[in-house]
Amino acid sequence: MARIFMLSLVAFLAATTLSQAAEIGDDGLHKQPWFSLSFRDVAEDIETAREEGKRLAIVFEQRGCIYCRKMHEEVLSDPQVRDYITANFNVVQYNMFGDEEVTDLDGSSLSEKTAARRWSVVFTPTILFMPEIAPEDGTVGEAAVASMPGAFGKSTFLHMFQWVREKGYEGDEHFQKYHARKLAADGGAMETTE
What we know:
It comes from Aurantimonas manganoxydans (strain ATCC BAA-1229 / DSM 21871 / SI85-9A1). By secondary structure, this protein is α+β, with helices and mostly antiparallel strands. Helices cover 43% and strands 16% of the residues.
């Protein structure tokens, strides 16, 4: 009887875990339920995030991207990473080859794929971290305070979001030094996921 109960419990937990995984949308991109829905006006998205006491992060992905899948399944599914991001950032997803209309900080209207080229996004996933206040001119690519091109392990990913939230880009400590210091302070607890 105990064996049947344990097998049932394992099956239930597996089903629950799978149901919480990111789903794939019609555009072929993984969707997190906590990603922000937006009209893709970057200045408005920055202001909305600021009003909520958060920062805006724009993530570019593409259909069939194995690194995007890894980010969703192995990094964004981690409660520590997910909870930190949702408490401190609004994340808006863009399709690197998409046709949805985007409004850049200078007021230009362009497609997602044109925005990716204009903002020098060439890898997926790439995350662009926006300033707290939208500049009155320029482009997202010029205004971004940091970017994270590619898929990284949990600690690197989390530390980058923490570094941006703490405005590390304004100080003298480069992200790599910050990351090394945080790894040492954490005793390498998340390091095995790199």
